[in-house]
Amino acid sequence: MQLNVEKLGIALGRPSRDVFRDLTFALGEGEIARAAGPSGSGKTTLGMAIAGLLPEWAGVYMMEGGINFGGTPVRQGYPIPETAVVLENPYTQLSGLKSTVAGELAVPLESRGVPRDGIRGAVEITARRLGIAHLLDRKVRTLSGGELQRILIAAALIAEPRLLVLDRPLTEIDEDSRPGILGTVRNHVRTVRGT
């Protein structure tokens, strides 16, 4: 897998306002990159564009340059199936299809047609890795913001995406737990990469 961003420029709204221009970089399999900048500098916009989600997220936009994932141009409005995105606000990302944590973790695998037995095992393994096995039977609506963010990170990792976009996914998680969760994400990247 290779992600190539070439001379990317994005403007949002009417009248349009430039978010960024001439952004170029490449990422190979298993590489981790961090976009840094002040609020409003375009970090979320970049993540949504990489995932092909600009129309759903931004509505009106203009884009120049290109994004290529695994040799294929990324078309906005056609999300990349091999990509998972976790955003800052956990309350807006639940599927709404399941009432329990175990059910919510199963959704990404169900949508890919994984057999029920395979789903059950993957849910248990992922929950243990992220330290949320004790939450599997809980009702999603009873969870704290930090617990929800852990669930969403687990739901993103469970399908073993080739590209994982994290946009401030730890804001609701206590500071003592953050290093462990980031370590789990890094280990996931290494496991998928096969190193």
Descriptive overview:
The protein has about 200 residues and is α+β, with helices and mostly antiparallel strands. Helices cover about 35% and strands about 20% of the residues. It has six helices and six strands, in the order E-E-H-H-E-E-E-H-H-H-E-H. The strands form two sheets. It has a four-stranded antiparallel beta sheet. A hairpin with a 4-residue loop joins strand 1 and strand 2. Helix 3 (about 100-110) runs parallel beside helix 5 (about 145-160) and helix 4 crosses helix 5 (about 145-160). The longest helix is centred in the C-terminal third of the chain and has 16 residues, at about 180-195. It is globular, with a radius of gyration of 17 Å.
- How large, in whole angstroms, is the Cα Rg? 17 Å
Chain-averaged pLDDT? 89
The arrangement of helices and strands along the chain is EEHHEEEHHHEH
Describe the strand arrangement of the main beta sheet, using strand numbers. 2-1-3-4
What would the principal axes of the Cα set say about the shape? globular
Query: How many E-type strands?
Result: 6
Helix percentage range: 25-40%
**What class would the helix/strand composition place it in?**
alpha+beta
Largest beta sheet, briefly? 4 strands, antiparallel
Strand content: 15-25%
The N- and C-terminal alpha carbons lie at a distance of: 15 Å
The helix tally amounts to: 6
Low-confidence stretches: none
